[in-house]
Amino acid sequence: MNLNVVAKNISLSYKGVEALKDVSFTLEQGKTYGLIGRNGAGKTTLLSLLASYREPTSGSLFIGGEDPFENRNIMPHVGFVYETNYSDEYDPPSSYFEFAERYRPNFDRGYAEELASRFKIPLNKPLKELSSGKQSAFNATLGLASRSSITILDEVYLAMDAPTRDLFYKEVIEEQAQHPRIMILSTHLVSEMEYLFDHVLILDNGKLLVNEPFDELVSRGAAVTGSSKVVDEFVNGMTKLNSQQLGDTKSVMIYEKLSEKQWAEAERQGLQIGPISLQELFIHLTKEELKDD
Ligand SMILES: Nc1ncnc2c1ncn2[C@@H]1O[C@H](COP(=O)(O)OP(=O)(O)OP(=O)(O)O)[C@@H](O)[C@H]1O
Fold first, then answer.
1. 153 and 269: one domain?
2. Which residues, at least 6 apart from 170, have a Cβ–Cβ distance to it below 8 Å?
3. Is the CB of 217 within 6 Å of ligand 1?
4. Is the minimum distance from the CB of 14 to ligand 1 under 6 angstroms?
5. Beta sheet of 221-227, edge-to-edge order
């Protein structure tokens, strides 16, 4: 079943709050998407549409060519896991696995138990008694082992410690190799997760600011460093994200695909051009006002 996602001009308003504004994108099987945005940018709102928890106020959303809302052909194939409050949950992980086995067509119980063992999650202890890190790892386990064609993980990694997150990232890569699907990872941990992303979506105040393959996006960011006057002349007319100066040395972050001619010109003028990370792009693209100095 080819369950690609096509979103066209989607907007969603809560009472008085326009959380998503005219957002369009497509998602393809086999790719891992990084969904990034500042607090309140609309990430969870967007994911709740994909999971059919809500309907858009306007625009259209298709999964596998069909409207997913209350659609029994589609919903079992969309797995949405997010930080859940288990403080009143007496059921143990094993009960959730039984439930998932019944309702998730691709759920792999053997893999879920293997992951639980690697994450050291006790299978028969009430969820309310697990530490928050183990609860997060349990959520990630459910998401990975469900092997849903559309697997959505909304910030489930925040409470995990660093070694557990590392284990989780390795599983994401391994799962995409063995059981390719659409994986959407919503996160604030941009710097440590960026190597997982094939494609990046950046939401900013409900608008889709970036919708690009990871490699293309980062190749458009660069830090130009050199003598202040030469740098200023070189970056004149380019989109500038940030600048720093120490004595006569200036470094300007640009958001621009440089041509071969520009690279050669930079070299001729003794300028250094270095890469910038997705995290830096994210910080500067979504700050309140772009600097223009
Ligand atoms: N149920 C709701 N009722 C009213 N407004 C809401 C509701 N849920 C979210 N919002 C508003 O919609 C906007 C987007 O919220 P959303 O939770 O989608 O952002 P987010 O990017 O997931 O944020 P965070 O990173 O803080 O989790 C915010 O302004 C938020 O206050």
1. no
2. none
3. no
4. yes
5. 240-246, 249-255, 221-227, 272-275
279 and 184 in a common domain: no
Most informative mutation of 12, 18, 43, 190 for ligand 1 (most atoms within 8 A of CB) = 43
Say how many Å lie between the CA of residue 208 and the centre of ligand 1: 15
Query: pLDDT tens digits, residue range 155-211?
Result: 988 899 999 999 999 999 999 999 999 999 999 889 999 999 999 999 999 999 999
Q: Which runs of consecutive H residues, i.e. helices, occur in the chain?
A: 43-50, 93-103, 109-118, 132-146, 162-178, 190-193, 214-219, 228-235, 260-268, 278-285
- Number of structural domains in the chain: 2
Residue 14: give the domain boundaries. 5-213
Whether residue 169 sits in one domain with residue 268 = no
- Ligand 1 pocket member 263 (CB < 6 A): no
Beta-carbon contacts of 191 under 8 Å, excluding residues fewer than 6 positions away, are 277, 278, 279
How much is the pTM?
A: 0.92
| Residue 19 Cα to ligand 1 middle (Å) | 7
CATH number of the domain enclosing 118: 3.40.50.300
- Provide φ and ψ at 164, rounded to 5°: -70, -40
> Is the complex ipTM more than 0.95?
yes
Tell me, yes or no, whether 235 and 192 share the same domain: no
Determine if ligand 1 sits within 6 Å of the CB of residue 136: no
Contact (CB, 8 A) for 45 and 118: no
Residues 147 and 230 in one domain: no
Is residue 96 in some structural domain? yes
